[in-house]
């Protein structure tokens, strides 16, 4: 069956925010949302929902949640686990930043959906003292980031007929590598996702980097820190992937992030390139 998946940082939208009107118009079958303050009853009535509250840098709870919404059924939670004890400790610490569930939409086969919210700060170095970080830390970055923990866990997934959807705010864009001081590993991280056979839908569809985030005081988005990755079966069904209506989102102050909107057909339309970006 055709399928629409979106990923959107909602900039702490409340239940009464006009963002939800546009969300309803987009009418996704699956949505991974970040920075949600509250979801209105009309949306709750239409979707099966799971949510989680990420921690702050000091370990307290944020004032917003991340959420997975499915027009269908959400099944069991999927534990994201690494083969490294220290990485699993950090995955536990950031369990609300990286949370996954089995989902079913209509008569489609079961999928695994991972909601991602990578904070703009790295894993605390003091918690990693004495650990061998070489297989997780990027070569071009001095720190370990939550996105690196995600890759460590995805390496351990069972590659079978189950399709995976991994979407959210990753706070990572390859244009950051051009900043003063040299590469910071953003392209390196995308290459690691590609090596795990994940296709980044927006780049696959548009053929180029497509900005999704606008800095305060700016009129145009300048970087793509939001991503939507899928495994081969879904990548082969990708009909289109775009950002939402820029004039609508920014003109009505819905969010500083544009939603990523991906549409999939019920049949193969292209060979999956397994490109991370």
Summarize the model shown.
The chain is of the alpha+beta class and about 280 residues long. The chain is built from 8 helices and 12 strands. The chain has helices at about 20-25, 40-45, 85-95, 145-155, 185-195, 200-205, 230-235, 245-250; strands at about 5-15, 30-35, 50, 65-70, 75-80, 100-105, 110-115, 165-170, 200, 225-230, 240-245, 260-265.
Structure description:
- The chain is of the alpha+beta class and 277 residues long.
- It has a single domain, classed as Endonuclease/exonuclease/phosphatase (Deoxyribonuclease I, Chain A).
- The protein is 21% helix and 27% strand.
- The protein is built from 8 helices and 12 strands.
- The strands form 2 sheets. Strands 3-4-2-1-12-11 form a 6-stranded mixed beta sheet. The protein has a 6-stranded mixed beta sheet with strand order 5-6-7-8-10-9.
- The radius of gyration is 18 Å and the shape is globular.
